[in-house]
Specification:
Elements (H helix, E strand, L loop, with lengths): L3 E2 L8 H7 L4 E6 L4 H16 L4 E9 L3 H8 L5 H7 L2 H6 L4 H11 L3 E6 L2 H8 L4 H4 L9 H9 L10 H25 L4 E7 L9 H8 L4 E5 L11 E4 L1
Parallel strand pairs: 2-5, 2-6, 3-4, 3-5
Antiparallel strand pairs: 1-7, 6-7
Helix pairs in contact: 2-6, 3-4, 7-10, 10-11
Length: about 240
Amino acid sequence: MPSADLAGLSPADAAFWAEIEGARIIYVSEVHDNEMHHRQQEVILQGLFARGKQVVLGMEMFEIDQQQLLNDWQAGGISIDSLFAAVNWQKSWGVYSPAYRRIMEWSVARDIRIYALNAPRSEVRKLMEGDKKVIARLRFDALEGGFDFFKSQMVHHPGMRAGGIERYYNVQQLWEQTMAETIVKLAKKNPKKVVVVMIGRGHTDARFGVPAYVAQKIRATQVVVDPTLKNPQSLLANTSAF
């Protein structure tokens, strides 16, 4: 897969768009409660649309068993408030930012289809109860060094006990592998469209995150836009392609 160094480029720069030209999957990652990150997501979506790109939008924030509700809203059958009430949005995601609603409404107004990516809570509960078949049936290979990397990231996490790290890692893998599987399906179903993924930046590590799992099942140029901002006044992108 190709690689590029886009660190420090802004979506205001022509070079940014030149570098992501041809990408099939673009991860516009975020820290969930950071409004600058959400603003960058909007800029990238709007930029792709303005450049004539056909786009589908995948969202970590919805679980795959909520897709019919998303479909009903996108078809005009229910209001967005009804959708949010049905998925307990305010408690799960709305508390972080009003930007999700803004992005969703902008996208649907332009016929950009929105898809749920994440694992259903019922599957997470099964896994927590010891049923590892929910992961095994996704048929991804384990990522060498993944657990050690996860431990290094979580060792100082508040409330994380030594015995709980493995359980939480398993849940993380269920989330990431489910998202990867759904992204692969979207890319195959929409061969002429760019799959834009709204996702927490902790899931987008090129070695141990969702892109690494996607690469096991499909050959496609993937780009991760990491909106870590060194200067909060400027819209900087730390971006990697692989």
